[in-house]
């Protein structure tokens, strides 16, 4: 019988599986008992021979058996404990509370200093004062002289600010581009706020973990410490205005429900409509996550800008605001404007929505954007708003005409609002901002310095090796304490930033286990920190995703379909929850199935809640060993030892004198009593000293192998490494650094391969899920690319006890050349061929080790699914970005449509535990023309999980009458399967579709449902909607009210005050 076979060696690697593609021509001699097709016994022999060979190499060079023995030796003296999740999360919450409290205290000191400085200052319109302008510092003119407001400003790189050049003695002042640097209001504000410099410096000396501190003035300028130079964009513009920032808006005003009315009558054509659109967009900029809104366009009819949101309000998160902005471009002007009906609709929405309790349940406002009003509509106000005047009216008169200014200003004054006239696009920003001062009046009069905290956001200034830093801000309002009667003057807002990296340093990663993690969310359910939060994407350089700051907990813990965990945390409860989860690792390329137990509680003094997740099994147990301090320190200081960079053994950040210390240096000073005041985790240090002693013999073992010239003569094994549950790692090179095939491995460039603040190394995680004593093999790829590194990693876990409750104490492995790995495969198979003697081989190699199995053998994979060797599960990604083509439908914003034919589908196989497929779902079809942009979308994709009980299987595929056979055989002691395929038939034409999902039918309805759906949220405790002592006559900036309108307004005001 003539046979033409292919042997496929498959496993999970990075974005694909390692594939050694072999075409084998065979002359099979008929022997007793032989059958047509591929002999299973032969494949089993090959798999056994190769499995034994690679395990022998992996165990020998890693020293896994020696390490297992060393951990067994003190078995009787160690103590295994079950982790108390409730106690763990409560202790973590207390630490976070203390850290946040220190930041809030620093902010409060700034408030007190700012109010005192302003109280002592008398405004002087003639004041001349030279200050350090953030843009102009160190700038010189053509003659080499410092420019005005520039001056020589000392800047030095500082590692605490990621080596950004800063001045730790002084602050700088930034003024928006559209404002005059020497405006008297600016100069006076800058002058008195100089007093904050002393407090900035004092705060930083008290708490060296502080980063940016600042004061955002209601006049528009921004004072920042430490001083740093600002650089305009390519157009010479700095678009930053502190009054637009969420921390400013949240601190200055109370949560609010807003309806924006936009006049689209015929008179609004041309420039007026353009200004109106910009005005609405600027209003949206001032709304935050605790606010709710809708936009209504009106002429002779009422038009909801988003028709599906008729009669309701939506949360003002980034996604919803961007959605409405897209619809603003579709507005066009025609007909006449019936303002009375629009006002009635707006009042009705606010009243009905407020009664549901789903909005802010605090301040309410109607923003009116129009070019005029022919009457005052007092009948409407009397019906819906008087005498309580709970809804403020803010009219914006568009254009230079003032014929209707009196009517619009009267509306504002009669309803505790503010009137502004906007003549040009340049006027929009300043005029929109004025309403914030009115909304802040009740809080100012009450003199309530509410502390507010923002959601997570990216600070592009503090870029580290992994990209921009995530942070949150604590902010408080600053009020005038002078006797300004009842005007309620807001001076500005002070704020202090906290990097989430600092928050993560508080997490006791060694107590959470290999797959455990901690996370925190806001009162709105948005993620503050979570290992699955992906705020950045790679496209040339790391960039922020559009909706990165409003990722909901339910979008990463998506198996919790009923939001039980999310809602409990939002409502600041303390409790536990359990569920089965599918966690992706290796940047989403692999999946692990686990059962997690969640423990959660609130963080006092903040709107945040914190939780920890512990995986059942080895993840719920911890062990304690004990060695002498002398022995531990001796072995900890060996050159091959490193500790996890982002773990905190000793807090060296809180004192300036400790900042230069490495973690190992700090541990030594603390444990020897020379620095007893260092804040160190004694429990963690004791365990890391134990690990240092137990793993020390590996260094001598590896050195012996490296010195033995007969070993590893072809330098196939390049690196051996180990890691322990305490973040300790050891490495040994068998080849010089410049000869390494993959130099990124075990470096800061390889985030997945090292101990991180929120995860163990990938090779450690995957080894922990293997059967004890077996190795997991994989191919690493470059971060953000599919570049094959031409190496194979092998790792195995070290258990303390032969028990499912035993903690995984360490993992150990090697890096070897891919070519060396392939050669060992052929050597093992050649030996089998000699024994069987009746095979004649012809072999060639394929370099496609990064291909998915289904891309090469779609028909085989399809058959394996039908036979039950694999089962399909569904995974979701709610943080995906899809490519949207200009002129295409916007369906990419919902579940992407995916279409696969069996030879074109791609997936990742990991045969012995899990296998899953993932592909870039961002492109629905190849288009030859049109620009693309990245837009947020949700993706659904299949994963293929192997049945662990199936060790081998055979099958046949009917390819239009030509039967093609295959054999799949597990390779012992590994995560690998060998696949041998009869190659005599071409099955590409006869293969049916595996998976088709069409979303065009339900895209629009699904989008509307999402906009309407409001998840549970915890409303801010503080609310200041109005105050009886407000000065309602301070209500506009344009023309004076005429005498008859003033006369109409006074009785209303008098009646209100008398109440």
From TrEMBL:
Single biological process term from Gene Ontology: habituation
Signal sequence interval, chain numbering: 1-25
Residue ranges constituting the VWFA domain according to the UniProt record: 257-439
Pfam families, per the entry: VGCC_alpha2, VWA, VWA_N
GO cellular component: voltage-gated calcium channel complex
Family per similarity comment: Belongs to the calcium channel subunit alpha-2/delta family.
Name of this chain's protein: Calcium channel, voltage dependent, alpha2/delta subunit 3
Species, as recorded: Acanthochromis polyacanthus
